[in-house]
Amino acid sequence: MTDSAGPGRGPAEGIVADLARLGLRPGTTLLVHASLSGTGLEPDVLREALRAALGPEGTLVVPAFTPENSDTSPAYRARVARLTPAQAAAVRAQMPAFDPSRTPCPGMGRLAESVRTAPGAVRSAHPQTSFAALGRDAQALMAGHPLHSHLGEESPLGALWRADAKVLMINVGFDVCTAFHLAEYRTGTPERTYRCVIRGADGPEWTEFRDADLDDGDFAAVGGSFPWQLEHKGQLGGTFARLFSLRDAVDHAVQWMTEKRR
Fold first, then answer.
1. Which of 190, 187, 178 is nearest to 249 (CA)?
2. By CB atoms within 10 Å of each CB, which of 13, 160, 217, 245 scores lowest?
3. Per the domain annotation, does 90 fall within a domain?
4. Mean residue pLDDT across the chain
């Protein structure tokens, strides 16, 4: 990994310096999307550098999604695509119930797992689209995440919008920009049925609910027209990163979806 802070300084200090050059300020509430593959960045080092840059008044948030916990998700359908009905039923019967304190989020990357498992981390309660947070406002941001609001106003994403959070994207594109999902709720996306397995009084049990039919298939196009003057771009530990306002991202996506999706 490149230490952009210069000789005599460790990788964490170099990342903190890069974050300052990107425009990240202490006290910020920050949602981070990161893919560390091929970057040389170590998740625990990056986590602590982010916390150092945010300071004691800041809050670090990551998606900790678990689509594997549902039989209505693309992840589940891909898993059972080549199985017989009996084999698929056996897989479904063995799926563990979501446990906020233990269930991993393997699809979200190594930084998300590092934050989720860090001492003092708080995780929201949604069995499919939880978030994890560290810092001053972690408990408040993660409180209350009802089933019927995957990524809507009542979710941590809505709380992040109200907190005027920033979004940091490390080595990823706008196609994974979770903030755009809040725009789907605001533009009246149709609903569909979801199912997932949760902890019941007598063990794992399946629950069914309705919520917005979330679709990130056009997020790269949404981000492709995001005004360049609203974001800061630069190097972070030798890889590419961008920083922008979550509110700006949602407002832009609302306008884009109102014009393009309809």
1. 178
2. 217
3. yes
4. 93
